[in-house]
Design goal:
Elements: H1 8-27, E1 36-37, H2 39-46, H3 50-62, E2 66-69, E3 73-76, H4 87-94, H5 99-124, H6 127-145, H7 149-166, H8 170-173, H9 176-188, H10 198-213, H11 216-237
Antiparallel strand pairs: 1-3, 2-3
Amino acid sequence: MPQVPPDPAENGGLYSRLLAELGPAIASGQHPPGTVLRIDALEARYGVSRTVVREAVRVLEAMHLVESRRRVGVTVRRAEEWNVFDPAVIRWRLAGTDRPRQLRSLTTLRTAVEPVAAGLAAAAATPAQCRELTLLAAEMAAAGRAADLAAYLVHDVAFHRVILDASGNEMFARLGDVVAEVLTGRTEHHVMFTAPDPAAVTLHVQVAEAVRAGDAPGAERLMREICVGALRELDILVPEEPPGG
């Protein structure tokens, strides 16, 4: 009988499931650095084919979470070597016990980048981007009044993507997925207040107005207030543990 080729759709689903289980297990420390993961053991544990395991391992290698060596197997790399800007790595780390430190680290990154991006956007944003920012800020305000966190998140992510894109700096623009994962992680893991802060909503409206008016210093200052406010919110909801705590 002729051999039936594997179903790509079926393999894709198995591969996604394997990656969704193995990635977080590595990112959370369930498989500490130096752990050797055997291909045959992964096949047996997850009930998938060698092809599926190898596809998942290739993705994890691209993220620098693991490295493969002949006669050794798949070795988990040190966290310092991981591609910490990869959106999937961010998502997996936020799902683990290290979530508070990760959120603080990522929010600090936002504080360093987004105010500058907003200032640049005030000089470089197109009329279409200005209109989009104004519309998104209005939709955030409406979702905030309705205490609709899901809708608020959608508009919030889109707002910050536009700011980063409108900066005209391609490096800043590539951080759109990073910021999206931070904002999504805060909401999904309930590391934010039960309703959007009205003061933060107002600041988004004012950022949109400053960008449209070409007020670079104002846009930068207002965006910094947004980011610093997010850090303050973290300090309240997930206080940083003292050294040795």
